[in-house]
């Protein structure tokens, strides 16, 4: 093994394999962005003294060698030659002249883009890049995430505002050259500034909302252009600004305050190392800047999807992040002040590639331990062709697969799958390696911006592996490994320190302590970690043996025990303060993942539910004067997945009661007192819905005299059931934010005054939200924000109700949200009072065609009740009879089933029964409107829902469509579901087909024909498709839409 200068790479004499020219499909898009940055970022001229000397003297030809010493096998043609260095000054002059002469317009455009993107992190922190949503304006999309703040937006007065920290020998030259650029471009820049508001508006239009099409609207904030003479944040800010800022007043109901975990598949970067150790890493769709000394975080938010790749500039100031998915973004951030610039385009898949130290070649690493060398060809500006790269060599660098490739000072550095870190010189001769740390696969290497301390007598730098054995001087650096651990290596002591230890697999279980600021996080890798969320401090953890993944966690009400359910069916009861076993042996009565754990209010019972639809119950027994947990019984009580497992209290005895809710629409209550060993007795079974399936269940707060169970379902509805009779007492419109509610909890309160106003916290597929109680269907009472774009796995609330925690499952993150209820209350007050919020839910509002028709139907029902042909004086009132409600509902386009009609009747009849003891038999128009809006389908009737039924019941006809034969169609109507009688069927089809007068016996003047006089069966086609059923039989129209999502309604009415 020898040093670099004595062993330049030579061509291989045999065994050559000429590499074919390859096209990188992603390169063209990357190249479009790279030159734009080079105009502002002058870092390519900041070369080390060793690089300058090597360029001036000229280097030998690179050769391809086998092994870790001198690599001598070369595949390809020709010799790699570096251009002779012409000195920093000549290079800078030439480059600048080329830019000014050929790209002045591009310089102006780039400066303006950065000007418009100069948003301080103070501005980003105040909005926190939140996709805040409300039901009146269901999604404030990425526009609010990227909204420009008036206080922080700055305009660059000249390109000299881009001055970066340069070496003293180059600084004067660059400043003088920048002044020349400023004089050349000042005129154009002045013209550009005049049109900045227009271009800003266009740029903001590109930042589209990522919401369900046609269902949610985007709120567009207005950005103002500040004074022209305000200094640029880029030129006036310093690196200490980021953690010194006061975010000021919180203006959103939910504000992100902390991110637990990190995505170990992405790099961790060393941002600063002088007096504070600052790291950058990805966490779900957020980039986190973490100060390890101060234990503080700053969040860079704006991505609609989980971040898939990221990198930083040489001086650690500029950060680039990108995501992969719908409306993906590439964003550039300033780590000093926080401006970001967004390119809404696909940028391709990133590989482990870097520029060679000579800046004229690209190196690409492979998982086979090879290194591909590419030549970069840059045609002159006058040419029409674009820059491109061409492979010239394949180097067999090492045996282990290379996972990380980077450069530092005069070294090319690799990290591999075996946890080795190797340093090569520019000729690819190995200089040193670290392999004795026993690390897992290397995922990231990031070196300190601070230069290495020169060696002294007290230094403990290692020696390199050359024959000379020189001292190996290297900067401190950060190491991130595949097992989600981040290390810091102090080079002059070769000392390895752990900075972060996080779960490396999905986080599906979180739970908050009932009276202390503690959160417990469980991962599928078997790790349980406990944090003090107030001080943001990790306390203690436990890692279970391989194969035991945490699926569910719950504290008991006293807070001294922690129940843990595992993916393979084991159940542990742990000591909450040490995570040691609280029982001699874990329970092993489940064969599949334990999805739910719940404790009774007196901690006498614990119940679990598993993925095999089974409920198991454990109870405390006294043995030898000691309380011990024992298994009681288990029962496979459901046919589909269990969505909620809930303990309650019997009102008359204070004894625990246990209920389970399944996707099979069954609400089951168990008789705990009547159960015994290996026998879990069922008390009652109740079906909660017909078509929609339930998603979650909680006890509704005691806001009324009647105690309710709240059940959310897949139809975006919330149902309140009497806790004793299980009667559905009320159906209400729930949160509508792209997907149904998956979990819901009541926000805890600690004072009597807070009991007067209660709130719900909910999560759906990717959002967390708040809702003001009581629920009444008012859309302004609800707000939501995207928390985990790839899906929310769980939710927990702090004991005092100040914080909400969400777990992201596969994105390996837990987010802490601060609750600001006053902001939500302000939004409700702006939405109006009484019926004003509800008028906005119907087409045209209070003065629209729909509401006018509703009034006509309402008063026509009064005439029907009094008799159409009566000669008595008409009495017009504000009410209609309860029996008229279904007819008015159908008249305005809502067709409830018989069960839903019964629910509507019960809701109206017993609305005042608890307070007055009276049964209501009539309803006013305002109350009718609320009932209609809360019961109707939230998105109307769509062809997709009708076609789904035909897909299940029908067969594929000769045209490839799903159809039902006429005789099968009639048989289903007579025998299945809420089946019809033959008389009802005959009268209905005779009316639909125009053979009877309208009214189907409901109109006093209508007389229905009977018997053989009407042959309506012959009017039906032999086979019926979804389109025929909707248009030909029901007589409805299909509104223009996107295929199966088209809305079905009566043609003459816009409902």
From TrEMBL:
PANTHER family membership: CILIA- AND FLAGELLA-ASSOCIATED PROTEIN 251, WD-40 REPEAT PROTEIN
Segments for region (Disordered): 1-111, 126-155
Keyword Ribosomal protein part of the UniProt annotation: no
Statement: the UniProt record of this protein carries the keyword Protein transport: no
Subcellular location: Cell projection, Cilium
Composition skew (Polar residues), residue ranges: 101-111, 126-137
Alphabetically ordered keywords of this record: Cell projection, Repeat, WD repeat
Acidic residues composition-biased segments: 8-33, 56-68
Location (main, coarse): other
Any matching Pfam family: WD40
Compositionally biased intervals (Basic and acidic residues): 37-55, 69-93
Assigned GO CC terms: sperm flagellum
Record-given protein name: Cilia- and flagella-associated protein 251
Species of origin: Myotis brandtii
